[in-house]
Amino acid sequence: MTAPVGQPVKVGNLLIGNDQPFVLIAGPCQIESAVHALETAAALKEQCESLGIGLIYKSSYDKANRTSLSSQRGIGLRDGLDILARVRETYGIPVLTDVHAPEQCAQVAQAVDVLQIPAFLCRQTDLLIAAGETGAAINVKKGQFLAPWDMAHVAAKIAATGNRNIMLCERGTSFGYNTLVNDMRGLPIMAQDGYPVVFDATHSVQQPGGLGGASGGQREFAPVVARAALAVGVAALFIETHQDPDHAPSDGPNMLPLASMPALLQRFRQIDDLIKSTT
Fold it and tell me: Rounded to whole angstroms, what are the CA distances from 271 to 45, 69, 178, 222, 267?
């Protein structure tokens, strides 16, 4: 069963839809510095352009849902938005970042193209409405505690503002302690609401709190679940990547090395082309 087509979402010059060539949403978990962001964005842009893959650059100015109080949260709102705006202006690619509170939404929407609602906050009505009122595209992560059909209510809150530039993102479901699993049936189920479906391959292999004071992960399985999602049919893949994941400030165990991305993207493009040429 493949995902229903639904209505595509336009982000910059990209058309994101379940029947369109997949778009890559990628970047490091945290914004570390302007130099690092620009370097990573340049590499990803080159990789994607060589394969004809649309790119949205992502990174977070604040990781508000870290396991431990001692974990690094990020560079902060003001500096983070300045860096994301520089990435957008320098390379002409859309950018995405998280919002965590209603009062952040309008300001963040001035600097980025896509507002992302973190999974833990996907039912926060005031946040969803404030994000929708910006008119920006919204990528909503499905809570690890929600069934895929529950996302219809989440999308309806945003759509109530008149904004239907909504993407629904699968990132795994809690299955016992420190473990997430993916039910690929959820992808076409969420697509039945008429919105593009995004698959978050790297957070799907995260092990929340798996290292005690931090989250673990099994990055070797991220390409596996990404291929499975593309075989079902999705609008976009979300992949966090870093030059040196083992020394990244957050989510290192589930991020993919930047150097591994070209070969993976080539295979992903082949699968996506095959599936969408036969549906």
Answer: 20, 41, 30, 15, 6
Alpha-helical segments (H) within the chain: 34-51, 77-91, 105-111, 125-133, 151-159, 186-191, 222-232, 261-277
**Ranges 39-43, 59-63, 104-108, 250-254: which has the least confidence:** 250-254
**pLDDT 10s digits, 197-230:** 999 999 999 887 756 566 677 889 999 999 999 9
Q: Are 237 and 22 in contact (CB under 8 A)?
A: yes
For the purposes of burial, counting CB atoms within 10 Å of the CB of 166, is it exposed (0-12), middle (13-18) or buried (19 or more)?
buried
Give the helix, strand, coil percentages of the chain, each rounded to 5: 40, 20, 40
Of 103, 50, 45, nearest in space to 77 by CA? 103
Residue 26: CB partners within 8 Å, gap ≥ 6?
A: 44, 55, 56, 57, 58, 237, 238, 239, 240, 241, 261
Residues in the chain: 279
Q: What counts of helices (H) and strands (E) characterise the chain?
A: 8, 15
How many Cβ atoms from other residues are within 10 Å of residue 169's Cβ? 25
pLDDT value of position 73: 67
The sign one gets for the Cα dihedral 112, 117, 266, 44 is positive
The pTM assigned to this predicted structure is 0.93
Residue with tokens 């949260």: 73
